[in-house]
Sequence to fold (289 residues):
Amino acid sequence: MERDTDAPLALPEWLDAEELTRLRDLATAMADDAARLVVTERPRSLGVEATKSSEVDVVTVMDQRSEQLLRERIDAERPDDAILGEEGGASEGTSGLTWVVDPIDGTVNYLYGHPFFAVSVAVCIGDTTREGAWLPVAGAVSAPLLGETYAAAHGQGAHLVTADGRREPLVVSDCERLELALVGTGFGYEAAKREEQGAAVAQLLPKVRDIRRGGSAALDLCFVASGRLDGYYESGINAWDQAAGQVIATEAGAAIGGAPGGEMGKAMAIATAPGIFADLTDCLFPEAR
Fold:
């Protein structure tokens, strides 16, 4: 029998606060290790290994090496857990937990030496192959050129660790007026999708303070958590783009959702300060009002 997707996904009893802390700390250590790898071993003339959805949506050899590191660490330390990775697909597990990893979120930024890229590592319960049927319970996003690592565990809040070791709690902004909101978004790499997303930006731009396009969904969600953005929305993101950032934003107090009547996911991902969530959703989906 399929789960009632209108009911919230419940944490199993064995997934207590102590275990969630361990999972968060492991996710943080692995994200930092992979982030260190992609910086210290980045080839001088970095080549494009393959393409994803189009010729401008790239995969580098370092994406593949980063994911290999993450998979080897998970297999060694959590052999009963499943893994879903952007480059390597899904593996099965028996524990009820799935690690969802993006070895480099913001690969085009990474290719160009732009600092807005990160390694994203999350632990989820539920069926990560079905939208709305899973929930991230711990995760970390490590942005090495920013010197920042964001982390959270379910029910334990979210925090930022800076390069000098400072640990700061994360709290979303108190923005309550959409016209004063700084909103982040992102674009896909297929021409038709870009045209659709560009039209949405054109409709929204006169109604907000300004728009930012950073190039990493994981970091955009973390920036909502930290108050650097008042809101973020994007269509077309995948589980590995979303998972760690979702738990971090949620634990920092963000309101999250998707298209009206749906969960945050590929159709639409929205994360905002609570005071502007309804207004931003209305702007993105005026036909649903």
User: Anything to note?
Assistant: The chain has seven helices and 15 strands.
